[in-house]
Amino acid sequence: MDEINSLTIPLQAKLLRLLQDKTVRRLGDNKERKISCRIISATNQDLFIMARNGSFREDLLYRLTPVILDIPPLRERAEDIPMLAKEFVSRFNEQLSMNIKLIAQDLLQLFLSYHWPGNVRELEHVIESAMSMTESTETILSNEHLPRLLKKRLIGDQETTCLSNIEATSNKPLPELVRQYEKQTIENALILNSGNVSQCAIQLGITRQNLHYHLRRLGINSVFYKAQSISDTTSSPQKQN
């Protein structure tokens, strides 16, 4: 059940009765029937807060949450963006009869710096919009394919984020700022190069051995950033939540 937070209070009462009694009555029927089921639900709001506010039944909440899987928003898991982007490109290659084989680094870097208030669905929308602007013979998707309004939104958010970061870090000691910037730079390079340490070292202008030293010192695992190629996602699609 998607967006279970949108259920009205009367419908919540019916669902609660179903979970308690394990019976249903079909439309037009005059008898109860036993059922055996499990409810898997999703929400984009905090049901515990909704229960405190009275907009979600507390008794139903505890029936639905013996197991909770919390999926962070896309802005908190930037390492997933290349994999998701490639999956969407693969999907729209088929739907739009395109042959995009590569996402340009300028576009991927823009994705990494964007805040994604619309989460994964917004990323999917942006990629579909960009691919709709490409020619059928093109094989590289870049930020030049973004419609003007989308490009303005992504770049404008990047500028706002930079200003916010400057304000947030103005009171931090210099060594901490240097470490934070160094870690973010290396992580972005790993994302752009799908976890390939050799290519990452070339992009950063340091030796492979030196990069391994920094990875150990900063506690970064390069394997975590490895992503599939677009051709791989065609045969093994990823399930989206």
From TrEMBL:
Keywords: ATP-binding, Nucleotide-binding, Transcription, Transcription regulation
Record bears the keyword Transcription: yes
Pfam families xref list: AAA_lid_14 (PF25601), HTH_8 (PF02954), Sigma54_activat (PF00158)
Alphabetized PROSITE patterns for the sequence: SIGMA54_INTERACT_3, SIGMA54_INTERACT_4
UniProt domain Sigma-54 factor interaction: residue ranges: 1-132
Name of the molecule in the record: Arginine utilization regulatory protein RocR
Organism expressing this protein natively: Sporomusa acidovorans (strain ATCC 49682 / DSM 3132 / Mol)
Gene symbol of the encoding locus: rocR_5
